[in-house]
Amino acid sequence: MEVKTIATFECEVIQKEYELVGQSITANFPESFPDAAIKVQMDFEKRIDEIKNCKNKHVLLSPYMCNDIVATYFACVEVGVLTEIPEGMIGFNLPMTEYAKISCSNKTIDQGYTKIFAWMGENGYKQKWYDKSFPIEIYYLEEGAEEEVVEILIPIQ
């Protein structure tokens, strides 16, 4: 039987574009997190079936923006086409962007951030700040799992 390694901490550079539909929450940062993020994700999971053209309802994408005062955190799924957006949700496109990516888990996400930023520095990458891009956390949901795979994507220039 093959043992699945969740937190590989492997880093790489990828290019990706996303069409997303989801919900968001804005709250004080850092004191309201991770509770605010968990709340929006749980609320969104109850409504996933309302979204047309959903590519995979078991892959939750969470772009975010933060300025050390407040943070806006999204819970989204990728869609094939931005057409029907359910009431109370938002649909948006993240254009083709180059990202530094690391694989970790929901239990090792802090280590994931430390390692991806160290790797970026060692390899001469700088974070791209909010020029049609956001950092993204991607959660691979498994029903009943205590630990799930998470990828962190940091836009780079």
Account of the 3D structure:
This protein is of the alpha+beta class. The protein has a single domain, classed as Regulatory factor, effector binding domain (Multidrug-efflux Transporter 1 Regulator Bmrr, Chain A). Helices cover 16% and strands 40% of the residues. It is built from 2 helices and 6 strands; from the N terminus they run βαβββαββ. The protein has helices spanning 35-45, 109-122, and strands spanning 11-28, 59-66, 70-78, 90-105, 136-140, 149-155. A 6-stranded antiparallel β-barrel has the order 1-3-2-5-6-4. The longest helix has 14 residues, at 109-122. It starts with 10 loop residues before the first strand and ends with a strand. It comes from Sporosarcina koreensis.
